[in-house]
Structures are given as structure tokens and as C-alpha cells.
Write a structure and sequence with these properties.
Length: 171
């Protein structure tokens, strides 16, 4: 699915490696980008570099220093502008650390995603996994959410149900 020029996309984890590259491509496609990141495993430097690489679109990138567990902070990010789509990259993924600190990972990756979805629903979004991408788990690394509907260009094989096996909903 190609981004729609002029749309506003909120990217959680947008200051990370994958997130910042996604932001660059969204800006190049003519989108406005709202980054929500707690900078736990990233830096605002990556966003500065994105702006350097595409200076004529730098004003279309905004940043909210916010954790996905922060319901109030997420609410403010959504209330600040009309958001057309959300790309969720704010997940922890280091295998060794996940074994040593499983509850940290559960809290961020499961509870944080639930908080994000609840805030999205409050702002009129129906969380529909229109596209599922993965670079780590082979299943669910990124969900793209669309407001109130499935996109008309949803690719073949796009899941048309929100019912997933409970143990596989968010990894």
C-alpha cells in the first residue's frame, strides 16, 4: 500500500532505526509525519538526520517525547492534529534482555500496544491490521492502523478479522 500524499501518519518508535527510515520514505512521498518515541533505545539525532536528508519537507516532521504506556501523552499526540494512519514500531526486541527482563518486554510490547489501541479507539480509529510486517518475530512487528475502515487497496491476503489467537495477538 502506498502512502497517500498529504496524509498525516503517526509513527510510534519513529526515532529508531526502522522507524526513522520509514519516516524518511513517508516524507519523501509527501506525507506529514508525527513521531511518538520515548527515546529509550533511540535518539532525536536520527530525526535531525532525516530532516537534513530531506530539508524541503523538514517542517512536515513533528516529534512527541512520549512512551506508548503514557495514555495521556498519546492522547495529546492524537489531539494535536488529525492523524490519517498509524504505524506502530515501538516494540522492544533484544533477545537477551527479553529473557533477563521478561516483564519489561511484556509491559511495553503487550500493554503498550493495548494502550495505543485504546487511545486510537478514543479518537475514532478501528484497529484493523491492514498490513502486517515483520523483521524480528516472523509474525507481528508492525501494525498499520487505518481510521474507521480498511483501505480500499488492501493487498490480497490482508487479514479481514481482528480475531487472532490470544498468544499471537502482539509479540
Amino acid at each position: 500500500m502506498a502512502p497517500v500524499e498529504g496524509s498525516t501518519v503517526l509513527v510510534t518508535g519513529g526515532a529508531g532505526y526502522i522507524g526513522s527510515h520509514t519516516c524518511l520514505q513517508l516524507l519523501a512521498a509527501g506525507c506529514k509525519v508525527v513521531v511518538v518515541d520515548n527515546l529509550d533505545n533511540s535518539s532525536e539525532e536520527s530525526l535531525r538526520r532525516v530532516k537534513e536528508l530531506i530539508p524541503d519537507k523538514a517542517d512536515n516532521l513533528s516529534f512527541h517525547d512520549c512512551d506508548i504506556l503514557d495514555r495521556e501523552g498519546l492522547d495529546k499526540a492524537f489531539a494535536a492534529q488529525k492523524v490519517d494512519a498509524v504505524i506502530h514500531f515501538a516494540g522492544l526486541k533484544a533477545v537477551g534482555e527479553s529473557v533477563a527482563q521478561p516483564m519489561k518486554y511484556y509491559s511495553n510490547n503487550i500493554v503498550g500496544t493495548v494502550v495505543l489501541v485504546e487511545v486510537m479507539e478514543k479518537h475514532g480509529y478501528v484497529p484493523s491490521p491492514g498490513t502486517i510486517l515483520s523483521s524480528v518475530t516472523g509474525w507481528l512487528q508492525c501494525l498499520i492502523f487505518w481510521p474507521r475502515r480498511f483501505p480500499s487497496d488492501c493487498p490480497r491476503g490482508c487479514p479481514l478479522t481482528r480475531v487472532l489467537h490470544p498468544s499471537r495477538q502482539f509479540e
